[in-house]
Amino acid sequence: MLITKSDFLIYLDAPCHLWAFKRDLVPTQERNAYLNHLSAQGYEVEKWALKYLADCLVPEYGAMPEDVLIQQTVTTEHFEARADILIRQHGSDLWDIYEIKSSTEVKKEHYYDVTFQTLVFEAQYKIGRVFVMHLNRDYIRNGDVDCKQLFHIEDVSTAINKMKEEVRDLRADALYVAEQDSCEKFTGCWKPKECPCPDICHIDLPEYSIFDINNFTRSKKKVEQLLAAGVRNVHDVPPEFDLSDAQRLQVTVAQSGNPVIDLKTIKAELQALLYPLYFIDYETFNPAVPMYDRYGPFSHIPFQYSLHVQREPNGNIEHYEFLHLDKTDPIPDFLRLLQEQLGSSGSILVWNKTFEGGRNKDMGGMYPEFSE
User: Fold this and answer.
1) How far is CA 119 from the centre of its chain?
2) Are 372 and 303 in contact (CB under 8 A)?
């Protein structure tokens, strides 16, 4: 049995997932536009990372072609890993690992990922330092993409060394799980709606389960308490069980079948609205590598909006829209047209105030002439 780095990360997600994956019991996920987008973003980041390698790392190391290995794979008896970049220290037999990540920080799972990789590579190479190359959250494009500024190189060697024993044990556990004939004694996941193998992790799970309680799975202790008591259905949660006020309200409504409607608050909200009413929805695109000046990694590019206007109570609904089709920054045209269609008074309603408000703040900061 061979455990790859991908297998190991699946195991960390849930042991049952690994067992199912190794037996081809997980339905193949259909490729959709979003998954294709994520893949494309990963390839784009990798392209610029390799340019960083050529422009920055090779000169810094004084490396010759034979000192640089890209996508090198090492396979041992039971484990396999691939390194994005392996580069030899000048005049030495020590090799440094550079792992490329399409994120703006080193995440917890990245440490496990790179530690597993390091352990496998130590079977064939003397490993010196270990780095994670991720996008620089403070980079703002001004002219051509500057790959020197686009990336932040983080030395994770100390953290990796501290985690080696833990990861050795975990990968041994993963191998054990993968080799078993049954997964009955292994842990499933706590995300049934996202589970790749619900027929294995969540057999006979109630339609409305404890996993549907808002933010409940953030508390491992509480989930384990209910599962140990045999409680999986939200209707079986005891009245004395410790929940937040919002969680208890949700459970009470589910168990009683009676909705809770705060008419006083709803009435006060509606009475505070001033006409005309403007109902707005923005659509954005947030590429990993900024496409235009003023943007940074994963900055939202607002390229479309839909606007409905009701000028008086019971009045007709007018509809306006904007869709940017050119390969240029949409914001100036976006805001000019929106400014024409919005009056100077009234109330604006959106589905997600934090999102649209955040985009307004971003656009005003990027184009001060529209900030007011």
Assistant:
1) 26
2) no
SS3 content of the chain, % helix, strand, coil (to 5): 45, 20, 35
Map tokens 């422009």 to a residue: 55
Helix (H, G, I), strand (E, B) or coil at 67: helix
Rounded to whole angstroms, how far apart are CA atoms 96 and 68? 10
For 87-118, what is each residue's pLDDT tens digit? 999 989 999 999 999 999 999 999 999 999 99
85, 115, 81: which is closest to 98 by C-alpha? 85
Closest CA to 113 of 135, 103, 188, 52: 103
174/120 Cα distance (integer angstroms): 15
Say whether pTM exceeds 0.85.
Answer: yes
- Find the helix or strand (DSSP H, E) in which 6 lies: helix 5-13
Beta strands in the chain (DSSP E): 3-4, 68-75, 79-88, 94-101, 126-135, 151-155, 277-285, 301-310, 317-323, 347-349
Structure token pair of residue 351: 């589905």
Secondary structure of residue 308 in the 3-state scheme? strand
Residue 172 identity: A
What number of CA atoms fall less than 13 Å from residue 110's CA on the CB side?
20
CA 211 to chain centre: 20
| pLDDT tens per residue, range 271-322 | 999 999 999 999 999 999 999 999 999 999 999 999 999 999 999 999 999 9
Cβ atoms of 283 and 304 within 8 Å: the answer is yes
